Amino acid sequence: MLKVSNLVTEFASIKALNDISFQAKPGRITTVIGANGAGKSTLLRTISGLERPTSGSITWFDEELTDKSVEAIVRSGVAQVPEGHAVISQLSVAENIELGGLFRKRQARGDLEIATKDVYELFPILFERRREPAGSLSGGERQMLAISRALVARPKLLLLDEPSLGLAPLISAQIISIVDELCKSTGLTVLLVEQNANTALAVADHGILLALGKVVADLPAKELIADSALRAAYLGY
Amino acid sequence: MNSFLTAFFAGTSQGAIYALVSLGLVLVWRGAGVVNFAQMGQAMFTTYIASQLIQNEYSYWSAFVIALISGALLGALVDLGIMRPLSSRKNSLLLNSQSMRTTIPVIASLGILGVLKALAGIFWAGEERGFPAPVPTTGLRLGNTDLAITGFDLFVIGVVFLTLVLTTIFFTRTGMGLAMRASALNPEVTRLSGIRVGSVRTLSWAISGTASSLAGLLVTPKTNLSPNTLDLLLIVGFTAAVVGGLTSLAGSVLGGFILGYVIAFVNVYSAPENVFLAILIFLLLALFLRPQGILGSKEVRRV
Amino acid sequence: MSKVKSHKVIGFRSTRLAIIFFLFILLLSMQFGPYNQFQLANISTLLIAVLSITLLTGASGQISLGQGAIMAVGGYSAALLVTRLEISMWLAFVLAIFISALFGLFLGLAAARLSGPYLAGTTLVMALAIPSIAIRFDSFFSGDIGFSVDYGYPPDWLTNLLGEISIEEWSLYVALPFAALSLFAVLNLSNTRSGRTWRAVRDNEVAASLAGINIARTKVIVFVCSSALAGLAGAIYGFRGLVAPSVYPTDLSLLLLTAAVIGGLRSIGGAIFGTFVIVFLPDVIEKITKFLELPETISIYLPALMIGLLLLITVILNPRGSAGALEHIRHRHKH
Ligand SMILES: Nc1ncnc2c1ncn2[C@@H]1O[C@H](COP(=O)(O)OP(=O)(O)O)[C@@H](O)[C@H]1O
Ligand SMILES: [Mg+2]
Fold first, then answer.
1. What are the structural domains of chain A?
2. Residue A37: CB within 6 Å of ligand 1?
3. Which region, left, alpha or beta, applies to residue C152 given φ > 0 means left and ψ of -120 to 50 means alpha?
4. What ipTM was estimated for this complex?
5. Does B196 touch chain A if contact means CB atoms closer than 8 Å?
6. Domain of B118?
7. pLDDT above 80 (res B120)
8. What predicted TM-score, i.e. pTM, was given to this entire model?
9. How many domains does chain B have?
């Protein structure tokens, strides 16, 4: 299980994360919601090692992640899909996917081939367009590619930063349901960040509401959906 | 022999060398965000190493290989010893300023250039010396007619061609090549893919060091060797890289050949003393007419 | 109201600093023999060029490796005016400032579109190409030979006042007032509103343009001011005896940059320190090598080695130069 305790991350004078503690159950989706600037991305980036926390700790089962490098954290089975459909648009679709598994090429060549096949099965459109540059994909396809890049690493913990951003509701729902199925079938643990809470909370086990770098609610997802007063106060809808 | 062919062949073989220099510059610029003004200083130094080995009765080819390896090591050393510590000084006030982040490595590379030149002067007395070619540098003859090309020119063109083919295969067909391209394009996504971007960066310094070391070995049989002989090559290589857009490897090679022809034709049809001026004018034209380079697209330029 | 006041204080401060510098060099020269007096004249001249870099890089973040070429523009302008039109040297110096400023305007228009490595590389190409113009059009610029020009003789009123004046002293008396004036100008410039504008552009172009600063125009203005200084330095530098391509080599551009860097690109005091280092370091090293009886191959290259190392050590240890290091120490003492 992912355990975050008393995490503080600062930028110059801003405390983007101010004493955050929560846990994410293995094999489940935990959704983090919050308004723009609440610190959601900073939270994911601190877990994946892109930002260094000032204090606090992050553990994944028995493993201490807090001061590890990004590369080491990826090797511990944590994969992040950063905000904004992060694919490398000048590389082809196939190259983007290959990139995600490159670090395992020597130890686990066979499994890498299977993992690649798996993501192509999950997103057949990517297989069709595997030779095209990633920049030519639509927004939804790019998000699929970004997720695939993370999945070929065979992560145990997937960090998804606003996968719905800028996508049509239908497509974002489709992507989230694929993630949900993946969770159920493979036991993947997911930390899903969203601003638009409804679809994301619907598939989640647990919901965490962030505001100004603090956890203001940490509830079972159903209760968070139901609590319209809380949502109105922090999200404005 | 007619002067057009003379210029053409000279342009091709010189252009091949410029292509190597420009390729080396672009590799490090893309891979590490540094324009390495010390590049040809490194090449000068490794060429002196080769020259010293040949003086000590090593064969040309073993000296050649050792020089290339030293080029790679020197490149890696520059990165590990100087550039990486510099870029990790995030908290330094000066590096917080946007424009200084590109300026400081440039200054560091000038310092390296100065040190390498001085060391070469101290070790090898700084006098001009010749550097041998593995094949004759006299013009080839076909029957009774002189060809405008020498055996050495052909050698240069062949070696560079082979290098470019190998480089292309490396970048397009191997995982390491993919990692290098990816970390140049988007370091964050590459790191999140578990790739050690720092090591990849050091590798681009090493490859660039090898390419420029090769350029040094290929150009000095014609120019002789002294601590300053390769300065001009850096200027031309930089111009070629800018003509190619500074971010495109293919563009940098093309830029190298274009400059080779420009300089050769200026030399043959005008006068050698016009070369510098021609380079400056060409550089300014390139910057104003196609700042994104001949092969670049508009948004790629990272200024 | 308070703004106007602080402005006046700054003006007073820069006047004071310029006068202190003037008197300090003058007093120093009285302790020295002719050779070191000549070196002080060199320091005064080169200081103007180093200030042109401090202004450019320190205030705007732009880096020029071609300051020597702009010095050549100033030097040739003054030499041509004096030899062809036979005007007075002083007038020629002033006109050289304007011609170099005009050159800086064109350069700035080009450079405003460039930044970082593009500008560095382009100015380096310029450093090589500009002196070659003199060879290309040698009937006008008299090629490799160049122009023999000098400071002439001190005016009578000065000899009446000070007694016999040696050539070395006279070259110091020519260069020093210009150096003090340049110091005054740069100190004032970097403390005024335009100085602050320039630093804003240096630190963050996007933020600066959001704050309503015209980036391109700012860059051009910085280039014009910097080139005017470099041109003046080039004119004085050339009139030591010769204006020719060999007087303004690429190495000169790099040497000037070194002085600006080791002193601290942001600091005017640093520029003075750096200039002293580049002028006196070779002499010091020569004394040491003589003392240690090092072979000539080493002693020839030792100054270049030391200067390269200084440059490297400065950027690695403290990119803000010696001025930054001092500030750092002072800061620590306060706590
Ligand atoms: N690299 C950074 N430098 C400075 N401030 C940052 C940086 N990244 C984020 N912040 C600040 O941290 C806070 C949280 O940002 P972020 O985590 O991106 O929020 P969210 O993802 O919830 O929209 C914001 O106030 C933002 O301005
Ligand atoms: Mg965010």
1. 2-77+155-235 (3.40.50.300), 87-153 (no CATH)
2. yes
3. left
4. 0.93
5. yes
6. 2-230
7. yes
8. 0.87
9. 1
